[in-house]
Amino acid sequence: MTDITVVGAGGEYMESVVVVSWHKNPGDSVSAGELVVTVETAKAATEIEAPVSGILTEIRAQIGEEVAIGMVLGTIRDGAAESAAAPKAAPAVIAPVPPSVLPVASPVATLGPARVTASPLARRIAAQRGVDLSAITPSSPSGRIKLRDIDAFTHAHPAPAAAPSLAAGGVSLTRRGIGTGTPFVFLHGFGADGFSWQPLLAMLGAGHAAMLVDLPGHGRSPANAGAASFEDLAAAVGQALAEAGIEECHLVGHSLGGGVAIALAETGRVNARSLTLIAPAGLGPEIDGDFLDGFCRATRVESLKPWLLRLFSDPSIVSTGYVQATLKARGDELRRAQADLAARLFPDGTQAGEMRATLRRIAVPQKIIWGKCDRIIPMRHALGAGPEAAIHLLPNVGHMPHVEAPATVARLILQNACSAG
């Protein structure tokens, strides 16, 4: 017999993992190197391959179960042994991890938090429920927060009913958080949607009010946007925010959303107290046109995955489940709408919008965050921001800093907001 175990992932420190899905059932034949089980760490979904060829005879860790590092997940009978020794179990349900609920690390509710120790399952459930882990007192003598602590906390502090998505101004808005202060308005990047901010929101904690915007042509906003510039998109978002009663906010924009955030702050339609830009568009002409074309054309997992890999420094994030969830989130109508929008905003693989002069006119605290491994928009574009912007370059991070380094990005956003007074 050969045990299936997990000992680590990419050098990441872990004490345990959560089983996400089994790709084989007891009695099934497996080949060495074949995917058999997916587990979730505190950082990402990790696929575990069969160490030998043979028959999967036993599954010891069920879906959703938390397992300590080094423990046995299942066993394989080496060679071509008969499968009759192990009874067939019910087919395992494959549960892909979508981009909007990527596992995350310890939350950042203040500018200088102490490290919060929690199991991967507790972190995932806390993120889904909008629970700030730093507010929880662990019941374990080790000081490690577990699922039972999350359940006890949410029972004692029931969250208010989630605000429905608004359709104001034709743009979908979703409220998050229970804070009463100046809200954070998040504008996502090209091809994403408002829920792509989930890893970052888990870092900020539920105590901060947030509004997630689905840009025109994305998410639940109208697909037929007809926008030809950052200013067009900003006008639609500004109208939606005004109709939702938001008069001032802290603006946070990623990539395409960064260019829109600059344009929105310039209009004065909403009083931007601070402006945080993450790998923003609009600060230079270069952009990866091949990525835009490939992303917009892709209709299958096999054709989409290579382009999604360009977004990250850590390739383990782009699991099969991630790609499947990305495909599911955008149907043919949205895909065509995004291709049309890309042709208007980035003709011939070039950024047509020029926002550098506009950014220099905006007199609010500014931070620009860029991954040093960004392959979509060159990091050097940050130099075009002007002398008022603080620039933060993150090592070993690609075009998605809010996914690959959410704790750091959350801390920088809060610093910028605090500097606004």
UniProtKB/TrEMBL annotation:
This is Acetoin dehydrogenase dihydrolipoyllysine-residue acetyltransferase subunit. The keyword Zinc does not apply. Residues 1-77 form the Lipoyl-binding domain. It comes from Ancylobacter pratisalsi. GO terms for cellular component: membrane. It holds the Pfam family E3_binding. NCBIfam families: PRK14875.1 (NF011457). The lineage of its organism: Bacteria, Pseudomonadati, Pseudomonadota, Alphaproteobacteria, Hyphomicrobiales. One of its GO terms (molecular function) is acyltransferase activity.
